[in-house]
Here is the input.
Amino acid sequence: MLRDNQIFSNNKGNKRYAFIAFVFLVQLFISNNLFAKEFVSVGVVNVTYLMEKAPQSEVASAQLKSKFSPQEKKLALELDELNKLEVELDNIKKTKKNINLQRQKERELRSRKRIRSRTLQDFREELRFARDSALDDVQKEVFRAIDEVRIQQNIDIVLQDYVSASQAVDITPLVLEYLKNKLDASQTGNASDNKTQ
Here is the structure.
């Protein structure tokens, strides 16, 4: 039967050999990884900021406004007309004269409200679809720009979600500058195309 001292000394020897093997494996792992590739470069980017500040967002917003502004004005005018019709109907009700005219105005008001309600709903759906489509296009443009800047700066990986990062790894300003230059170049190209036509 082994004594307690013998068991303890055997465990102590096993622990020493295990520690030596562990240190050897760690050294082997570190040396292999350092020779295989020096370091991985990492950049971070604030996509939300880029989506808000990209000049492509401003262009898309201006295009949406110019496209839907006439319809908004038309809907506002229709609302004014409905309000006038309601005032007119209230005045007719107060006089308690001409019940036929009152019923006619009530039918007209209900009918016009239904039509405006449908028109307003269609307008909102069309606007939402156009806004989502424009947002999707801008987002694709921002992601392409991030990838282009990543390639230009020889960055291995770009992280979008982060808590905090130093300016040394934040490529957001570089991507924003890239987006501005790309828009300027496309607008310059469109201006020269228009001159030749």
